[in-house]
Please model this.
Amino acid sequence: MGGRRGPLALVAADGAAPVSPRAALLEEMLAGWRRQQQARRLSVRLIGERERLVRQFAAFTGCWPWQWTAAQAESWVSSGGWAHSTARSYQGALALLLKTLWFSVPAYQGPFIIRAKRLGHPGPVALGEGPTVAPLVVPPGPTLNGTGGWREAPGGLWVKTPGCYAWQVDGLTFSEIIIVHALVQ
Model:
């Protein structure tokens, strides 16, 4: 039971199903998203419903989340026959998976600032809902989206080309750097 691609051979044990790296990546995305929602103390039912919608949309498109387009989302919503409010909540669930959710734990109520930059090459990087080519600043105190002391700033990272990018997140008592590699399928 073997296949050969390039210099590497793939050999599966009898009866073993091959693992799709893309399917495994989707499962890891959903598991991470599930953990984020659990950290926000969302109900098991709500988390399960959101995950069901993501899987339903993935089946509708036949694509992976990193390949989804706005046109596919519009087609899915228009073909569903749902009430307007239901369609909007479904669109919101999809957007939540694909957004970057910045948050701080209840113990930290100070301000934080998020800066983004492309590494190794010039190029604009935008943050937030806008998006805006400027730092994202979350002031001290409660946020509109937060509950139970959790402060949230949902948004996105908007880039024009693949490459390495970094976020620097600074608060009064911490500084973190996060590096990501954006790919084009």
